[in-house]
Amino acid sequence: MASVTIRDVKKSYGDLQVMHGINLDVNEGEFVVFVGPSGCGKSTLLRMIAGLEEVTSGEISIGNKVVNEVAPSKRGVAMVFQSYALYPHMTVFNNMAFGLKQAKTAPDEIDRRVREAAEVLQITDYLDRSPRNLSGGQRQRVAIGRAIVRDPEVFLFDEPLSNLDAALRVQTRLEIARLHERLNSTMIYVTHDQVEAMTLADKIVVLRDGRVEQVGSPIDLYQRPANAFVAQFIGSPKMNFFQTAELAKNASKKLTAAGINSNIGLRPEHLAASSEKDAIIGGTLDLIEQLGEYALVHLNTNSGESFIVKMDVPPEVAKGAQMWFTANPDLVHLFDQGTGLRINS
Questions:
Q1: For the chain, which residues make up each domain, given as ranges?
Q2: Which residue among 65, 89, 175, 257 has its CA within the 20 to 30 Å range from the CA of 291?
Q3: CA distance 300 to 255
Q4: How would CATH label the architecture of 237-336?
Q5: CA distance 6 to 49
Q6: pLDDT in tens, 273-328
């Protein structure tokens, strides 16, 4: 395994600059997830690490070696793509062995590596099958196995679960987490799904418009988002935002002291039903999503802004009814209306 160091990396396509001076440290053995909306640059950054995209300026190092001019095959990385990219005319064994054969690895060594990887991924019984006879989840495991046999310094995953159905995504996500524990390898993983990011990562890198918005552990980003963008991107459902004017008249001084230039962020799971006297915010009931273990209650403030409350038991009130909610002041987030930056400790 190896560390990855990125220093002031920029990427342009002609006059269009898409990456704006990225600085990042990935430690040895760390599982780092790049997350952000479509078009934020996460896959471009991953491909620059892999050598599949050229760096316009700046440096990328793997271990202690700058790799800007190093061919992809010489960087000590292995990449798992979204599309599996398996050869349909080859067996699972030959798909996994292909890169080793190209590198003229000894046949006995190829056999050992393939069978060891197949055992780790529980696909030993499929080695003689062709990809068309496998499920989507099994094909993705073969693609991961093809990366494992190369014994890379760094694993790169580019949205590997996006082609799987919901149940397979959960299963394969768990397999990737267990794989990281077994191999103790450096892994960099790209996704737009913040649930994948939260459950897999040692460290999350939130990207927007080719810039790093925040780097930290999942719990750091959840509890102390650096700005309004991160606050709403991390967490499901996303954080509610209120202006001071929307607060209940008797909201605590700690909240109203934020002033007219602040937005107040409250996560749906941190709001609790209360009396009007004790409330921070009120709203009229619009919709209830009953999801079994909890309900998502959609409401509108007097000014027409929508917000969501996550409740263990759905309220027994009619649509249009007025409801009131309170929250622990320690769980309230304050953001500057102009810059979006967090302003409370």
A1: 4-230, 237-336
A2: 175
A3: 20
A4: Beta Barrel (2.40)
A5: 9
A6: 999 988 999 999 999 999 999 999 999 998 889 999 999 999 999 999 999 999 99
